[in-house]
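pasting for ref
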Amino acid sequence: MERSQRRFRERSPAGMDGSVTTTTSTPIGSRVRLACGAMLSLITICGCGAAAYEARLEETNKYFRYMEVLDQNLGPVWRDSGVELRAPRQFQLMPKPVPPKVEEGQPVPVLIDPRQPDYLNFEFPGLLGAWQTTVNANVNGTVAPRKAFIYVISNYSMFSQATQIEKAPQFSQNFLDRFWQILSIPEDQRRSSQEKYPKGVGYQPDKNFTVINLRPMQSIDGVQYLFDIYLIQQQDVQVAVVVATPADSDATNFLAKGVPLMLETMKLTGEKPRAGSQKSASTPAAF
């Protein structure tokens, strides 16, 4: 009995008075349980860290897949007058007209903008950018090449002209009124709807557009054209994106995905020029 008790006692150094104290050691089973508990806690902590890492990695992979989708469907970034946009990659940017050099004292010639539509008796006000592409359209039962276009217009330049600043807030409505009239759209068909982009969860800020879908009956170059207008406003600056395509064509094959991506990645700064500044669109925005 004496020998068994010694196994669970440890001899401590003698005190000042020469006495000896004894302490009872922790049983082996308890020490094993403590070690296992510590190990389980460590595994749990490591497991939580691994899960968080995996979640971040998956989110990063989703973002890069999203960027790949953008690059597969959209062209290069275009910027002008506080607007940033990537048109569907099938479209080519039409160059701005270059103002001719005018000698001092000579009259300034009228600048003709070749980006304006030659298939309509209409000029887009405040034209900032234009793109075009060739699509295959059904023309009287035969497949033939026709043009599709994208236009970006804005009231941006109106803020640099003292005489136009007061008219700037009515830019979008004035544009629509004239465009409806040119296309002979009856008043009971002049409807609009609200759409938000991105449609789902995305990596871009939400943007709300007023959308007008025009389907004029008269043919243009032998085919019916569709005009989809997307209006957006950032502070005082109003912008409209106009997509013009033949009704029966293969343009729907790439526009169905390209246009929503173009709109969700579109950016507006809301900045506007000061009155009297030289910065303005090549085409006057006044009506």
